[in-house]
């Protein structure tokens, strides 16, 4: 990762007023949370359609719950990594700052970030598929799968957005508005293949923002990034942060 690129990104951020950070599973990789695509990913050898779609849940809620319960169990053992910590600290540095994440793990919030836009929901939210009652429930493991709604007895599901489901409208609108009016968009740890979330990068770029990518590998948006810092977020972001000077 060329030093001068890191220095140029730090200079860019020092002069930025409005900053948006768009993250994916890669920002949690160094916390020990598996990503989805790539070697050892969550989708490797697993039927995505069965585990991350409403149809799959209706067909076999227990198999889907076993997948999510295993991820929840792993998350009880992990903590935010330096990338999450830097991104949380930056909320005090920029006049306007937004974190929009595709992640459902809650690690940005665990690092102290507030008002995180969770585009794909949260693995800690449980929602009744019958009456819609939603709550945060960190029970691991549940005594029985699938968990049942206390209000109506309906089958409860993870409060995440599955394929074919629309994203929470107010969250996507807020993220789109922020991306469309920022000076710098920092894209961290996403393959940028899932829409409409990945569309945020095009919104920011079309509105004239400078796009910075932090990812050890190229992604589907590398071609529209002015700067690509090729390295792990847990090392790259603290390095950039150390060059920002006094908050
Ligand atoms: C919708 C559930 C319709 C939560 C997820 C064809 C073309 C275009 C679009 C479509 C299409 N066919 C279908 C669609 C739509 C579909 C879609 O985009 N499919 C893609 C795959 C082609 N989208 C949808 O279905 C969305 N809904 O469109 O509904 C609709 C429209 C109107 C009205 C009603 C309905 C819903 C999308 C949400 C799906 N939910 N998961 C969960 O279980 O977590 S998607 C899943 O992928 C996760 O949410 C994840 O967040 C998301 C994106 O993955 P990434 O975060 O990018 O992770 P990935 O493993 O891919 O990449 C990790 C990256 O990190 C890599 O680049 C790696 O290099 C990097 N990395 C690794 N280590 C590090 C690192 N980076 C930095 N540091 C490190 N240390
Ligand atoms: Zn219910």
Report on the architecture of this protein.
The structure is a single chain. Helices cover 33% and strands 17% of the residues. With 247 residues, it is an alpha/beta fold. It folds into two domains: 147 residues, TPP-binding domain (Rossmann fold, 3-Layer(aba) Sandwich); 73 residues, SIR2/SIRT2 'Small Domain' (2-Layer Sandwich), CATH 3.30.1600.10. Strands 3-2-1-7-8-9 form a six-stranded parallel beta sheet, with helices on both faces. Strands 5-4-6 form a three-stranded antiparallel beta sheet, covered by helices on one side. α1 crosses α10, α6 packs parallel to α10 and α8 packs parallel to α9. Bound molecules: ligand BV8 and zinc ion. The site of zinc ion has 8 residues, from loops.
Summarize the structure.
This protein has 247 residues and is α/β, with parallel strands linked by helices. It has 2 domains: 3-32 and 80-120 and 167-242, TPP-binding domain (Rossmann fold); 39-76 and 126-160, SIR2/SIRT2 'Small Domain' (2-Layer Sandwich), CATH 3.30.1600.10.
């Amino acid at each position: 990762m060329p030093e001068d690129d890191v220095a140029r990104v730090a200079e860019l951020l020092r002069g930025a007023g409005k900053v948006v950070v768009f993250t994916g599973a890669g920002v949690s990789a160094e916390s020990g949370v598996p990503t989805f695509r790539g070697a050892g990913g969550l989708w490797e050898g697993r039927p995505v359609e069965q585990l991350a779609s409403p149809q799959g849940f209706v067909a076999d809620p227990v198999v889907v719950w076993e997948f999510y319960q295993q991820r929840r169990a792993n998350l009880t053992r992990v903590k935010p990594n330096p990338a999450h910590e830097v991104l949380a600290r930056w909320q005090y540095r920029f006049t306007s700052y937004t974190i929009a994440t595709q992640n459902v793990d809650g690690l940005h919030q665990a690092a102290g970030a507030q008002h995180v836009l969770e585009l794909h929901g949260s693995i800690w939210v449980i929602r009744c598929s019958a009456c819609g009652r939603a709550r945060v429930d960190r029970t691991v493991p549940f005594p029985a799968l699938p968990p049942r709604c206390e209000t109506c007895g309906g089958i409860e599901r993870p409060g995440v957005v599955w394929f074919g489901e629309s994203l929470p409208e107010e969250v996507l609108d807020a993220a789109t508005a922020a991306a469309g009016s920022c000076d710098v968009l920092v894209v961290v740890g996403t393959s940028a293949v899932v829409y409409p979330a990945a569309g945020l990068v095009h919104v920011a770029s079309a509105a004239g923002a400078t796009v910075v990518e932090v990812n050890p590998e190229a992604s589907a948006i590398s071609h529209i990034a002015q700067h690509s810092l090729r390295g792990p977020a847990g090392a790259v972001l603290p390095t950039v942060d150390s060059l920002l000077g006094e908050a």
